[in-house]
Write a structure and sequence with these properties.
The chain is built from 4 helices and 7 strands; from the N terminus they run E-H-E-E-E-E-E-E-H-H-H. It has 163 residues and is an alpha+beta fold. It folds into 2 domains: 4-129; 130-163. Bound molecules: zinc ion.
Length: 163
């Protein structure tokens, strides 16, 4: 279920919205190679109308599955936004999209969640990276190790050209 605010209901009283948004609804599934979202986001929000705007305040909680950029270990990190708020104008240039008397809050939540993603996830601040053996293995696989073989191939090629 997308997170919708019904303006007709809001005219009568302030609203409380509680529930979950799936990673699919938030379009967070393939956003970042190192960060995976597998569990739904939990929200608990109060919505009120103040003059020509809607104020949304409450908490957002989302669990991220990150891969450490240094050691490639998978670890969980919680994004806990206990004081999340959004101010949605109903008039003017910045006014929100209203369809069938409802506003979809999902994109506003998504935007702030994405901005809050860790830029370079680390399993711990002092992560020392891959153990030496594993690093060597990776280098071998990716071909980023020593260039002895290829350089000798080039040497051979140069020799051929000279002939
Ligand atoms: Zn690490």
């Amino acid at each position: 279920m997308p997170l919708l605010i019904n303006l007709r209901q809001l005219e009568k009283k302030d609203l409380t919205l509680q529930g979950e948004l799936t990673p699919t609804e938030l379009e967070l599934e393939h956003l970042d190679e190192m960060i995976h979202v597998k569990k739904p986001l939990e929200y608990d929000l109060e919505v009120e109308q103040i003059d020509d705007a809607i104020l949304v305040q409450g908490s957002l909680l989302l669990e991220l599955e990150c891969e450490c950029v240094r050691c490639l270990k998978t670890f969980k990190q919680e994004m806990d936004l206990p004081d999340w708020a959004a101010h949605l104008p109903l008039v003017g240039e910045e006014k929100v999209v209203i369809s069938n008397d409802t506003i979809d809050l999902t994109p506003y939540i998504r935007e702030d969640i994405v901005l809050g993603f860790p830029q370079h996830p680390l399993c711990s601040a002092d992560c020392s990276g891959l153990p030496k053996g594993a690093a060597a293995k990776l280098k071998k696989i990716s071909g980023a190790g020593k260039f002895d073989e290829s350089s000798s191939a080039w040497t051979q090629l140069d020799k051929l050209k000279l002939k």
